[in-house]
Design goal:
The complex is a heterodimer. Chain A is globular. In chain A, 80% of the residues lie in helices and 0% in strands. By secondary structure, chain A is mainly α. The two termini of chain A are 30 Å apart. Chain A contains 13 helices and no strands. By secondary structure, chain B is an alpha+beta fold. Chain B is 24% helix and 33% strand. Chain B is built from 9 helices and 21 strands. Chain B has a 6-stranded mixed beta sheet, with helices on both faces. A 5-stranded antiparallel beta sheet of chain B has the order 16-20-17-18-19, with no helix packed on it. Chain B has a 4-stranded antiparallel beta sheet with strand order 2-1-4-5, covered by helices on one side. In chain B, β13 (252-256) and β14 form a beta hairpin. The radius of gyration of chain B is 25 Å and the shape is elongated. The mean pLDDT of chain B is 90. The A-B interface holds A 89, 155, 157-158, 160-169, 171-172, 175-176, 179-180 and B 14, 51, 53, 72-74, 76-80, 82-84, 86-90, 99-100, 103-104, 147-148, 151.
Chain lengths: 259, 347
């Protein structure tokens, strides 16, 4: 019973990991184009990543957008999560929860297209601002989930206790609620950052020239050249994402974060 | 005038039956009143009203003669011990206990004097620098009590404070709470669904049912002389039968299913008779000083020092707690009672 189960787990793991490990191997290959099996060993493709300006700018654009979007999402999540957490009417609570989760369930490509119409056509925004609006909307449900989970774990009694001891509502929130959901802030921001950093289609639809996020820069590069630089960059992005994930796991844990 | 007065309180959530229907409650200084009832009876709502976490649609809440019905929670000087204790996890025991004093801007010396006094009173010395997560359940409960009492509240509210305490220690914690409460002479409302808890700690017990207080009296009175069917049922009177009174002489008799019972009490509005299983005896011979009902044992359950027998009789199935242990199912026996132990109950 135990051995077949272990074997099955290993096969599944291998299937999941292969597409990630393959580019890692190719990244060190000496051949000029992306080919398999890899030959030799070199670090020049990694160096090449840093020589290509679009990648550097792309990384800076992606991380700036992700940072701003995460901050906005967390700032918007806090009041809405608070209302959700003090809501006693279970029907309204459920409705609100579903409403705030909706963007997460919508296919990203559909959301991107609709945002393109709305942001570009209706609002007439053609700048990095459109990317920020889009990314904020995409990461909002993730921020919401983490902040709401932290508040729920804390319970409402603690705030009521501070109020009964003479503190007004806002003071009680600042004194005893905020300090106890600080892990939620850190974890929520990291998770939002990660989701934003990897949101390809939203960037594809909403970037208008001046700021080109990293995934788009990579696609553009692939259209011109087909060498292992992309593999090296992919390897670095995998490492970056894994580091962020570990950060989320350390602060809030995936289970409480995504629920 | 009583220290805390609730008059004609009505609370109704969006729809359905009101949670509180004309509730009346008075608590004296130094008195501990337990609100006892099943879940949904309105006891927690009553507590939240006094605390100021909600306001009634109708009615008045007076504390020390002043109207506090609509005063915000943080402007009422009320200490609360929550069921979950609700200690602040990021503050040490000392900071938890003195939180209310810091909010009130009590001077440094006065703060540490009052904090130390309450810490000593509850036996928390040496734990001041620990965090709540480093304490046992019992210690957390005492910190919660100390924090509520440190502000010298006008009223102390306790919401099921013993439900998270190991049953073995409950009696001791109950005695501790009682001692501190008497020492500080503070009006206390204690919410519980546990009959033993309420009877063991309160000066008066208020049994609540469907948004009203059905009966409020001293524990002995509530237990021995319940007035309504609901209270009797909640206090463990298993033998409750609907009646039809038949005579109005000195010794009243009532009829249950055509069989007559002798009673001493009188109440023209009574709808039921009740006897507690412990007030009945079982016997195979007629005993001259008791009234009796003939019956046949249909079931029994062993209770350690006593056995509970269930007998089929002319008035219905009767439960009797007896120290006689050698009777078996199918045996004929008498259920013996004294007329003064038969209670008359209203609906």
């Amino acid at each position: 019973m135990k051995i077949p189960f272990l074997a099955l787990s290993l096969v599944t793991l291998a299937l999941l990991l292969t597409p990630i490990v393959m580019p890692l191997l190719i990244a060190f290959s000496t051949s000029e184009s992306i080919s398999y099996p890899p030959h030799g060993f070199t670090l020049r493709w990694f160096a090449n990543v840093f020589n290509y300006e679009s990648f550097i700018n792309g990384f800076l654009a992606s991380s700036s957008i992700a940072s701003v979007a995460s901050c906005l999402a967390i700032a918007l999540s806090l009041p809405s999560s608070y209302i959700l957490y003090r809501q006693k009417n279970l029907k309204i609570k459920e409705l609100m929860e579903n409403l705030f989760t909706l963007p997460m369930l919508m296919p990203e490509i559909v959301l991107s297209y609709m945002l393109l119409i709305f942001v570009y056509r209706a609002l007439g925004v053609v700048s990095v601002l459109s990317l920020i609006i889009g990314h904020t909307l995409v990461v909002l449900p993730f921020g919401m989930r983490v902040i709401h989970a932290s508040l729920s774990n804390l319970g409402v009694d603690i705030e009521d206790a501070a109020v009964s001891l003479g503190r007004d509502r806002l003071g009680a929130f600042v004194d005893v609620v905020l300090p106890n959901i600080r892990h939620g802030f850190v974890g929520g921001s990291l998770m939002c950052f990660m989701v934003s950093f990897n949101a390809v289609s939203i960037s594809l639809f909403l970037s208008f020239g001046e700021a080109v996020p990293l995934p788009i820069a990579m696609l553009n590069y692939l259209q011109i050249r087909y060498d292992p630089t992309i593999a090296a960059l992919s390897a670095m992005m995998v490492a970056f994402t894994v580091a962020l994930s570990l950060g989320v796991e350390k602060t809030v844990g995936f289970v409480s974060g995504v629920k | 005038m009583k220290h805390l007065q609730l008059t004609d309180i009505w609370v109704q959530y969006s729809k359905g039956e009101p949670v509180l229907q004309g509730l009346e409650l008075e608590v004296d200084r130094g008195e501990l009143v337990a609100l006892l009832g099943p879940s949904g009876c309105g006891k927690t709502t009553t507590l939240r009203l006094i605390a100021g976490f909600m306001t009634p649609q109708k009615g008045k809440i007076l504390i020390g003669g002043k109207d506090f019905t609509r005063a915000p929670a943080h402007k009422r000087n009320i200490g609360i011990v929550f069921q979950s204790y609700a200690l602040f996890p990021h503050m040490t025991v000392w900071l938890n206990i003195t939180y209310g004093l810091r909010i009130r801007n009590v001077g440094k010396e006065e703060k540490s004097r009052r904090g130390r006094k309450i810490t000593e009173m509850l036996g928390l010395e040496g734990l001041e620098n620990r965090y709540p997560s480093q304490l046992s359940g019992g210690q957390q409960q005492r910190v919660a009590l100390a924090r509520a009492l440190a502000i010298q509240p006008d009223i102390l509210l306790m919401d099921e404070p013993l439900s998270n305490i190991d049953p073995k220690f409950r009696e001791r914690v109950r005695a501790e709470i009682r001692k501190v409460q008497k020492e500080l002479d503070i009006a206390t409302v204690y919410v519980t669904h546990d009959q033993e808890d309420a009877l063991g700690i309160a000066d008066r017990v208020a049994v609540m049912n469907r948004g009203r207080i059905e009966q409020i009296s001293a524990p002995v009175e509530i237990y021995e002389k319940p007035k309504t069917r609901f209270v009797a049922d909640f206090m463990g009177f298993e033998n409750i039968f609907p009646i039809r009174p038949v005579s109005n002489s000195e010794r009243l008799t009532v009829t249950v299913d055509g069989a007559e019972l002798k009673v001493e009490a009188r109440d023209p509005e009574a709808k039921y008779v009740a006897f507690h299983p412990a007030k009945l005896t079982i016997s195979t011979e007629p005993e001259p000083e008791y009234e009796r009902i003939e019956g046949k044992i249909v079931d029994w359950s062993y209770k350690g020092d006593r056995v509970k027998y269930f007998l089929k009789t002319a008035i219905g199935e009767v439960a009797v707690l007896s120290s006689i242990k050698n009777l078996a199912v199918g045996n004929e026996a008498y259920v013996c009672y004294r007329p003064q132990d038969v209670l008359l109950l209203r609906e």
